[in-house]
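Incident log, entry 3
Record: ABC transporter permease (336 residues)
Problem: checksum mismatch between cached and fresh output.
Input:
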Amino acid sequence: MSTPTKTGPTRTKPADAPHGVVAPIIGQARQVSFWAEQAAPIGLVGLVIVFSILSPTFLTLGNIRAMLVAAAILIVLSVAQSFVITTGGIDLSISATMTVGAVGFGLAWQAGLGFVLSGLVAVASALVIGLINGLLIARGKVTDFIATLGTLSVATGLALIFSDGKPITVNSSELLTLTSGSIGIFGYPIILAVIIGALAWFVMFRTRFGLHVQAAGGSEESAVANGVNAPRVRIAVYLISAGLAGVAALLLVARVGAAEPAINTAFLLNCIAAVVLGGVSLTGGKARIVGPIIGALLLTALTNGLTLLGVSQFYQPLAVGLVVVLAALLTRFQKK
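Fresh output:
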């Protein structure tokens, strides 16, 4: 007679446990959507590795601090643009709005209003442009592209008229502190940008207003049916965009040492690029805050690395453009 075989619970081999954890990760990595969703962090890590190999000064503390300070303005503008793009819109006037804010600061400083009041004038000047954008789009039913393209031109003209086309020199100890002050390797501009990013994340994902922004961008009809005042939300996001552009104006004046009336279109293109790289859907309804911040860091690292390698500035917009086109292609594969 044969002895009965004892049966018991099957034990998992030790080798199976890691496989069970790694397999889903490998499966995700094989999907195009994974690369589309993680384009900004993957790209940033890749650039850091490449440039640290090609340039011994890229990862020095001094260069890291300089990159973070340089990225601060772009981070603020990218966060601002994220609110607008989440609703399915776009703010083409954001860099011109920042310039109007800078000129407003310079004129107020010349008039002897002091740093705080001049800063309020800068933000208020920018908010006027944002209010016009919001009213044109939400109430006037003008398409966001045409409305903000028009205000871009208007803001450009106003900045040149009020400044007489000349830079306004600003000698402010507060701005000097903002430019040169730091905590460790983190300069005050990047600290301010991160604080703004954290507040924006809280507003977008932890408040009713943030939910309304995402709902208005996903389906305005459904949002209105559920009690969302979509026109009011659109006005609000353009005000947020302009207000943050006004804050960026302070960082710009601090960095340059003057209120420049000339429009820097690179900020406009790069902030939209950072938002796209960060995974925000251009069709609206999909919000991100951390992603655009990483996208802004990526573009700053790209420009910095190319400069360290001695690449001509003529080629740098080409490199940024290629990155943006690649990111735009990847957005087709993002999960809805």
